[in-house]
Amino acid sequence: MIRTSKNLLLTLAFFLVFPGLICGQNYYLDDGGAGLNIIVIRPTGESVASEDEFVLDYIQNLIIANFKKYTAVKASGGISVSNIGKNETALLLIGTLSRTGNSYIMDLAVTDPSSGRRRASHRATNVRPADILSAQAINNGFMDVLKQINVNLSDAGIAALKNPSRDEVQAAISMARGTMAEKNNNPIEMLTYLYNAAAYDPGLLEATNRFDDYSKVLSSGNVGGSVINDLQNREKWKSILDEFDNFYRAHPPFILNFNPLPGQKGNTDYDNRTVIMEFEANFQEDISFNAMQKVFVSIATGLKNTKNQEVWGFITRPYRSPLFGGFRYYTVKAELVNERDEVAATSVFRVRSRIALLRNSLYADTTQKLKPSFTPIHIDTQLTDVMIVRIVSIDDIETEKAMQGGYVKIVPVETLPKAKARNLLALITRGISNN
After folding, report:
1. What is the pairing mode between strands 91-100 and 103-112?
2. CB-based contacts of 139: which residues, under 8 Å, 6+ apart?
3. Which of 39, 89, 269, 403 sits a CA distance of 20 to 30 A from 392?
4. Mean pLDDT across the chain
5. Residues contacting residue 324 through CB under 8 Å, at least 6 positions apart
6. pLDDT score, position 426
7. How far is residue 157 from each of residues 111, 205, 235, measured CA to CA in Å?
8. In the predicted model, is pLDDT for residue 276 greater than 90?
9. The whole model's pTM is what?
10. Beta-carbon neighbour count of residue 384 at 10 Å?
11. Domains along the chain?
12. What are the DSSP E strand ranges found in 201-353?
C-alpha cells in the first residue's frame, strides 16, 4: 500500500510540474461538451444507389466514433427520428445525403426535439464520392457542427480530424458494409467486413462480438434458423457455399501498394533527349485474406457437422472451390503525370494471385515486388520537376470504382510495406493444385 501511494504521488507531482502533457493529449478544450447527449440518426439517402447505401451507415458510424474520440459528448445511434420521443433530453443529429449526377449534397443538422429549435446546420455541395470515403467531407461537417454547439477542439483534435488515419476510416467503412450485408442476408460478406472492421480497429468490440457469434453458429452447422425441413436446410447451405465462391471472386482479398514518386530507369538518351521513368510496387494478400481463412474453416466445419454433406451432394465443397489452385491474373494500367496534369506516359503490367488449400487451411502464394516502367518521355516537353504516378484501372475497372466496390485495394504509399515471405507450403502445393 505504501509503494502504491508513493507511485500515485509521483504521478500526480509529474503532471503538476508538466501540466501541458495532460492538455496535449486531449483533442478538445474546456469540458469538450461533457454535458451534452446527442443521438446520431442514420442519414436519409436520396437517389443513392442500393449498392452505395452502406455509405449512410458509414457516415453515422464515423460521426459517433468522432464524438467519442474527439469530444466528451455522450453519443449514440438511432435509426429514425420517429423512434425518438419529443420529450427526449438528447439532441438529435440528423443528416441527408443526396446524389446529384456524379457528386453529392450532404446536409447535417442538430435539433433539440423538446423545443424543435435547430442548434446547428451544415450543408456541403458538389461532394465527390472520394471525399466521403476518405472521411474528409464527413469530418469537415462534424467540425462545423461542433463549433455551432460550442464544443471547442484543440489544435491536435483539428489536425487529427483533417488527417484521419486510414485504419479508423477503413474500420468505419467495413463496419457499415458488414451491417448492410447482414440486412441483405449475405453472411459471408458480413463476416468478412466485420473481421476487417475489428482488424482495423481492435477497439470495435461490437464487430468482434458479432463476428465471433455468427462464426460459432456457422461452425455448428445449425444455420437454418426458421428452417422447417431438410430441403430448406440444404438450400441454405448451398446459398452459403455459392456466396463464398462468388463473393471472394468479386472481392479478391489482395492489395496493390505503389510508390507514387517515380525514379529514373537506366541512363538518359541524350541523342533523342528522352528518359524512362519507373516506380516501385508490391502485390500481396490484404487483411481480408485472414477473414477468408477463418470463414472457410467455419464453413468447412459447419457443413461437416450437419452430417448431411454427402447426402446433399456437397462432398467436395468447399474444398474444390474454383478460387483455389490456379493463378489469377490482373491487368493494371498506370499513368505518369507531370506538374501540368498532363499524362506524359503510360504503363500496363500484370500481377497475379493464387490461393492454395492444404489440410483444411488456405495459403496465399501472391507476394510480388515490381518495378513497372513507362514509355520514354521527352525531357524538354514532358518532364517537369515533379512527376507523379497514378494507377488508373485494374482489369479495366477505374481505380475509384474498384475501391468503392471492394475489388483489389490500390493504395499509394511512399514507403512500401515489407513484402510477406512466400509460404513454403503454398509453393510446394503449386504443382499438386494445378493438376
Report:
1. antiparallel
2. 62, 66, 161, 162, 164
3. 269
4. 86
5. 355, 356, 357, 362, 433
6. 46
7. 24, 24, 51
8. yes
9. 0.80
10. 12
11. 24-164 (3.40.50.11830), 252-286+302-433 (no CATH)
12. 254-258, 263-269, 274-278, 281-285, 328-337, 343-353
